[in-house]
Amino acid sequence: MKIGHKLIEHNFRFLIQNGPNLVWKDISTERLFKDKKIILFGLPGAFTPMCHQKHLPGYDNMFEQFKELGYDDVYCVSVNDAYVMNAWANDLLIKNVLMIPDGCGTFTKSMGMLVNKPRQGFGYRSWRYSSVINNCVVEEWFEEPGINNESNDKDPMTVSLASYVYKFLKDKKQV
Fold this sequence. Notes:
Elements: E1 11-18, E2 21-28, H1 29-33, E3 37-43, H2 49-61, H3 63-68, E4 73-78, H4 82-92, E5 97-101, H5 106-110, E6 114-117, E7 123-126, E8 129-134, E9 137-143, H6 162-174
Parallel strand pairs: 3-4, 4-5
Antiparallel strand pairs: 1-2, 3-8, 6-7, 8-9
């Protein structure tokens, strides 16, 4: 994925609370991103140490700061199913970030971020990245260095952190 590219048309499968029941609901890329400025970040997986302790909570905690810069929402996408994404959000008491399940990795693959994590036994997961999506088009792109399919990395987490993205966007706005 590069700056200027349009997101693929894709339907995400969410589990939505409907009274006492959970119901499946397909929500399209267009519905999620059209006419909005979104901070979207991808990470390897729910409940994994760095994602759980730092990556996702960072965006949830900085949500209001992104809103003050003019962004409509913050979305987290992971190659996990809707049950896992919902459980993870509940466990961390996530209030501000929309958790997007990409169970088959189709969307993540279209972003060029689907990698194999064999050493951990994860199978295919997302490489860490963050982006600004403006009306379905990539406006900014922050990809962690060293993308690979052999798990021979130290799970870098620098340019995809909420604090890094926020500082970049704040500095850009002041120019």
